[in-house]
Amino acid sequence: MKIYQQSLHLRPYRRGFHIITSEVVNAMPQLAEFKTGICQVFIQHTSASLSINENADPTVRQDFEMYFNKAVPEDDPDYRHDDEGSDDMPAHLKASMLGCSVTIPIRNGRLALGTWQGIYLCEHRNHGGQRSLIITAWGE
């Protein structure tokens, strides 16, 4: 069994849902060594998240942003945590709803994503800054 781990520091993205599949793959060239395996991508932040979804039509990502903004509004007077601005507590809630990691099978040296699937960085802050990921791949 082989195990590889790599850090990836993403440039700052604007608020929204962004496809980062190629950045993940480029950061882990060792994927090519695996016949079968697993790749986990973990984000080291509490106000951004990861997901896997539609990689072709950008309106899907726009609709994701619209939905989560309706589901978890800013400026709710019941929020107690608001030291970092009106987008901070909603960002934590959205990140918990979507999660901090994705797990993808590796098949014949490639991520075994479906035809229309991509890895999303879900940036929930207006100015989230650089985001750090840990990518771990293991298998044969």
UniProtKB/TrEMBL annotation:
Pfam families: YjbQ. SUPFAM superfamilies: YjbQ-like. This is YjbQ family protein. Belongs to the UPF0047 family. InterPro entries: UPF0047_YjbQ-like (IPR001602), YjbQ-like_sf (IPR035917). Signal peptide: none annotated. PANTHER family: UNCHARACTERIZED PROTEIN YJBQ-RELATED, UPF0047 PROTEIN C4A8.02C.
